[in-house]
Write a structure and sequence with these properties.
This protein has 137 residues and is an alpha+beta fold. The protein has helices at 20-32, 46-51, 57-62, 80-85, 102-115, 117-124, 126-136; strands spanning 11-15, 38-42, 65-67, 73-75.
């Protein structure tokens, strides 16, 4: 279901725009992508609500969502192979997700990572996390 979205050939990656790890990952993808492979939208953006009203905020805060040009929506670890295919030099890595057992491993790792992303961010980016914590007080 595409809503009112035009098919541009770009995949739309929906991510937690408040998460430092998610934002760094989006920056990395932008540097590695084939030209015009992705459009990035934060989960809580008004543009997301307007263009993709069928994407529930609670769902996209639990896992990244990737909307393919044909309208198919891939959630969490199921989006990895499609993301890799659109990155320079990383396409062959998408085949790793075809190996026996890879779905179970990817699902388990993704769920753990997604559930702990803010803690992971505080370890990886303490200066940004601590600054936000000081601003809240």
């Amino acid at each position: 279901m595409m809503g009112k979205e035009e098919k541009t050939g770009k995949a739309v990656l929906i991510y937690d725009g408040n998460c430092p790890v998610c934002k760094k990952t989006v920056e990395w993808i932008k540097k590695k992508e084939y030209k015009d492979s992705f459009e990035m939208l934060p989960c809580k953006s008004e543009e997301l609500r307007r263009r993709f009203p069928f994407i529930e905020q609670a769902v996209c805060m639990q896992a990244m969502q990737l909307i393919l040009p044909d309208g198919q929506v891939l959630s969490g670890e199921k989006a990895f192979p499609e993301i890799l295919k659109r990155l320079k030099r990383y396409g062959p890595a998408a085949d790793l997700f075809k190996l026996p057992g890879s779905e179970i491993l990817a699902s388990s790792f993704y769920r753990w990572f997604a559930d702990n992303r803010y803690h992971i961010a505080s370890v990886l980016f303490p200066e940004k996390t601590n600054k936000k914590d000081r601003e809240r007080k």
